[in-house]
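Review form for a predicted model. The reviewer records the input and the model, then writes brief findings.
Reviewer: anonymous (R2)
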Amino acid sequence: MSNSTYTANGDNGDQGSTEGELNAWKHRAPYRVHDKAEDFKVRYEGSCHCGKVRYQLSREKPLDAKYCHCTTCQKIHGAPFQWAAIFHKDDINFTHGHHDLGWYESSEKTCVHKLPCKVSCAYCRTPIMDEGRNMILLFPTLIDFKTPEDRKNFDISCHMFYPRRVLDINDGKPKWTGINDSSDLIEDSPQDAVNELKRKRQDEQEKNKNQE
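Model under review:
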Protein backbone atom coordinates (compact mmCIF):
# COMPACT_ATOMS: atom_id res chain seq x y z
CA MET A 1 0.00 0.00 0.00
CA SER A 2 1.38 3.40 -0.99
CA ASN A 3 1.61 6.17 1.57
CA SER A 4 1.54 8.85 -1.13
CA THR A 5 -1.51 10.79 -2.23
CA TYR A 6 0.12 10.89 -5.66
CA THR A 7 -1.22 7.40 -6.47
CA ALA A 8 -4.74 8.82 -6.06
CA ASN A 9 -4.01 11.24 -8.89
CA GLY A 10 -2.47 14.07 -6.98
CA ASP A 11 -4.44 16.47 -4.84
CA ASN A 12 -7.51 16.87 -7.00
CA GLY A 13 -9.31 13.77 -5.72
CA ASP A 14 -10.48 12.43 -9.08
CA GLN A 15 -8.80 9.02 -8.91
CA GLY A 16 -7.51 9.30 -12.48
CA SER A 17 -10.87 9.51 -14.23
CA THR A 18 -11.34 11.71 -17.30
CA GLU A 19 -15.14 11.50 -17.29
CA GLY A 20 -17.80 13.57 -15.53
CA GLU A 21 -18.30 17.23 -14.75
CA LEU A 22 -15.57 17.33 -12.09
CA ASN A 23 -13.01 16.22 -14.67
CA ALA A 24 -14.07 18.58 -17.48
CA TRP A 25 -10.92 20.67 -16.88
CA LYS A 26 -8.81 17.85 -18.36
CA HIS A 27 -10.35 18.46 -21.77
CA ARG A 28 -9.76 22.22 -21.77
CA ALA A 29 -6.63 24.29 -22.29
CA PRO A 30 -4.12 24.43 -20.72
CA TYR A 31 -4.54 20.80 -19.57
CA ARG A 32 -5.86 19.08 -22.66
CA VAL A 33 -3.28 17.08 -24.61
CA HIS A 34 -2.77 18.45 -28.11
CA ASP A 35 -3.59 16.00 -30.86
CA LYS A 36 -0.76 15.14 -33.26
CA ALA A 37 -2.90 16.42 -36.12
CA GLU A 38 -2.75 19.91 -34.60
CA ASP A 39 0.91 20.22 -35.57
CA PHE A 40 1.97 21.57 -32.17
CA LYS A 41 5.45 23.00 -32.83
CA VAL A 42 7.67 22.31 -29.82
CA ARG A 43 9.94 25.26 -29.03
CA TYR A 44 10.79 24.55 -25.37
CA GLU A 45 10.44 21.77 -22.82
CA GLY A 46 10.03 22.11 -19.07
CA SER A 47 9.52 19.94 -16.01
CA CYS A 48 9.10 19.95 -12.25
CA HIS A 49 11.91 18.91 -9.88
CA CYS A 50 10.96 15.22 -9.74
CA GLY A 51 10.15 15.01 -13.46
CA LYS A 52 6.65 13.57 -13.05
CA VAL A 53 5.15 16.72 -14.61
CA ARG A 54 6.57 17.63 -18.03
CA TYR A 55 5.38 19.99 -20.69
CA GLN A 56 6.17 21.57 -24.06
CA LEU A 57 5.79 25.16 -25.24
CA SER A 58 5.14 26.25 -28.81
CA ARG A 59 5.63 30.04 -28.56
CA GLU A 60 9.17 31.36 -29.11
CA LYS A 61 8.75 34.35 -26.80
CA PRO A 62 6.29 34.84 -23.94
CA LEU A 63 3.70 37.57 -24.30
CA ASP A 64 5.51 39.25 -21.41
CA ALA A 65 7.89 38.38 -18.58
CA LYS A 66 8.16 40.07 -15.18
CA TYR A 67 9.59 39.84 -11.70
CA CYS A 68 6.88 40.01 -9.03
CA HIS A 69 7.98 41.07 -5.55
CA CYS A 70 4.61 40.73 -3.78
CA THR A 71 4.63 38.94 -0.42
CA THR A 72 2.37 36.13 -1.71
CA CYS A 73 4.90 35.21 -4.40
CA GLN A 74 7.75 35.49 -1.90
CA LYS A 75 6.05 33.07 0.51
CA ILE A 76 4.76 30.52 -2.01
CA HIS A 77 8.03 30.36 -3.95
CA GLY A 78 10.25 30.68 -0.89
CA ALA A 79 12.27 33.22 -2.84
CA PRO A 80 12.88 36.99 -2.97
CA PHE A 81 10.60 37.30 -6.02
CA GLN A 82 8.75 35.34 -8.69
CA TRP A 83 9.97 35.21 -12.30
CA ALA A 84 6.85 34.78 -14.41
CA ALA A 85 6.30 34.53 -18.18
CA ILE A 86 2.85 34.99 -19.69
CA PHE A 87 1.51 32.57 -22.32
CA HIS A 88 -1.78 31.74 -23.96
CA LYS A 89 -3.35 28.58 -22.54
CA ASP A 90 -3.03 26.81 -25.90
CA ASP A 91 0.74 27.48 -25.99
CA ILE A 92 1.40 24.62 -23.55
CA ASN A 93 1.15 20.86 -24.05
CA PHE A 94 1.54 18.55 -21.04
CA THR A 95 3.28 15.32 -21.97
CA HIS A 96 3.44 13.77 -18.48
CA GLY A 97 1.61 14.26 -15.21
CA HIS A 98 -1.06 16.75 -16.20
CA HIS A 99 -3.59 14.64 -14.27
CA ASP A 100 -1.31 14.69 -11.24
CA LEU A 101 -1.44 18.34 -10.29
CA GLY A 102 -2.38 20.18 -7.12
CA TRP A 103 -4.19 23.50 -6.98
CA TYR A 104 -4.22 26.38 -4.55
CA GLU A 105 -6.49 29.43 -4.69
CA SER A 106 -4.69 31.99 -2.53
CA SER A 107 -7.51 34.47 -1.80
CA GLU A 108 -9.75 31.83 -0.19
CA LYS A 109 -6.87 29.49 0.71
CA THR A 110 -8.60 26.50 -0.86
CA CYS A 111 -7.25 23.56 -2.87
CA VAL A 112 -10.06 23.42 -5.43
CA HIS A 113 -9.66 24.30 -9.11
CA LYS A 114 -11.04 27.82 -8.93
CA LEU A 115 -9.62 30.51 -11.18
CA PRO A 116 -7.30 32.21 -10.75
CA CYS A 117 -5.28 29.51 -9.02
CA LYS A 118 -1.75 28.28 -8.49
CA VAL A 119 -0.78 24.90 -9.96
CA SER A 120 1.94 22.61 -8.63
CA CYS A 121 3.22 19.06 -8.94
CA ALA A 122 1.33 16.97 -6.40
CA TYR A 123 4.41 14.81 -5.77
CA CYS A 124 7.42 17.17 -5.36
CA ARG A 125 5.28 20.35 -4.94
CA THR A 126 7.23 22.35 -7.51
CA PRO A 127 5.15 25.37 -8.61
CA ILE A 128 4.22 24.74 -12.27
CA MET A 129 2.21 27.83 -13.18
CA ASP A 130 -0.45 30.31 -12.17
CA GLU A 131 -3.62 29.71 -14.19
CA GLY A 132 -5.70 32.81 -14.84
CA ARG A 133 -9.05 33.12 -16.53
CA ASN A 134 -7.50 33.80 -19.93
CA MET A 135 -3.73 33.30 -19.62
CA ILE A 136 -1.14 31.28 -17.73
CA LEU A 137 1.96 32.46 -15.89
CA LEU A 138 4.81 29.99 -16.30
CA PHE A 139 8.07 29.96 -14.37
CA PRO A 140 11.10 30.01 -16.70
CA THR A 141 13.35 28.29 -14.14
CA LEU A 142 11.51 25.07 -15.05
CA ILE A 143 12.42 25.36 -18.74
CA ASP A 144 15.43 23.60 -20.23
CA PHE A 145 17.02 26.40 -22.24
CA LYS A 146 19.32 25.06 -24.94
CA THR A 147 21.07 28.31 -25.85
CA PRO A 148 21.74 31.75 -24.33
CA GLU A 149 19.43 33.17 -27.02
CA ASP A 150 16.58 30.98 -25.76
CA ARG A 151 17.13 32.30 -22.25
CA LYS A 152 17.21 35.89 -23.50
CA ASN A 153 13.73 35.45 -25.00
CA PHE A 154 12.46 35.39 -21.41
CA ASP A 155 14.13 38.61 -20.25
CA ILE A 156 11.76 40.64 -18.10
CA SER A 157 10.10 43.89 -19.12
CA CYS A 158 9.55 45.23 -15.58
CA HIS A 159 9.26 44.66 -11.83
CA MET A 160 5.92 44.60 -9.97
CA PHE A 161 5.32 45.41 -6.28
CA TYR A 162 8.91 46.61 -6.07
CA PRO A 163 8.47 48.49 -2.75
CA ARG A 164 8.00 45.07 -1.13
CA ARG A 165 11.35 43.80 -2.41
CA VAL A 166 13.81 42.06 -0.11
CA LEU A 167 16.79 43.09 -2.23
CA ASP A 168 17.58 45.87 -4.68
CA ILE A 169 17.93 44.98 -8.37
CA ASN A 170 19.66 47.71 -10.36
CA ASP A 171 18.86 46.47 -13.85
CA GLY A 172 17.42 49.63 -15.40
CA LYS A 173 13.97 48.08 -15.81
CA PRO A 174 10.72 49.90 -14.94
CA LYS A 175 9.75 49.31 -11.33
CA TRP A 176 6.06 49.52 -10.39
CA THR A 177 4.55 49.96 -6.94
CA GLY A 178 1.89 47.35 -7.85
CA ILE A 179 0.56 45.82 -11.07
CA ASN A 180 2.34 47.26 -14.09
CA ASP A 181 0.44 50.00 -15.94
CA SER A 182 -2.09 50.14 -13.07
CA SER A 183 0.14 51.64 -10.38
CA ASP A 184 2.99 54.14 -10.16
CA LEU A 185 6.62 53.94 -11.24
CA ILE A 186 9.15 54.55 -8.50
CA GLU A 187 12.13 56.87 -8.86
CA ASP A 188 14.54 54.03 -9.75
CA SER A 189 12.70 53.45 -13.04
CA PRO A 190 14.12 54.65 -16.38
CA GLN A 191 13.21 58.28 -17.02
CA ASP A 192 11.77 57.54 -20.46
CA ALA A 193 9.35 55.01 -18.91
CA VAL A 194 8.30 57.59 -16.30
CA ASN A 195 7.75 60.22 -19.00
CA GLU A 196 5.74 57.81 -21.13
CA LEU A 197 3.50 56.92 -18.18
CA LYS A 198 2.87 60.63 -17.47
CA ARG A 199 1.99 61.22 -21.13
CA LYS A 200 -0.42 58.28 -21.23
CA ARG A 201 -2.19 59.36 -18.07
CA GLN A 202 -2.47 62.95 -19.28
CA ASP A 203 -3.99 61.67 -22.53
CA GLU A 204 -6.47 59.58 -20.54
CA GLN A 205 -7.45 62.58 -18.42
CA GLU A 206 -8.01 64.72 -21.52
CA LYS A 207 -10.09 61.96 -23.10
CA ASN A 208 -12.24 61.65 -19.98
CA LYS A 209 -12.76 65.42 -19.87
CA ASN A 210 -13.92 65.45 -23.48
CA GLN A 211 -16.42 62.69 -22.75
CA GLU A 212 -18.01 64.55 -19.83
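Findings: The two ends are 70 Å apart (CA to CA).
Further findings: Confidence is low (pLDDT under 50) at residues 1-11, 13-20.
Recommendation: see findings above.
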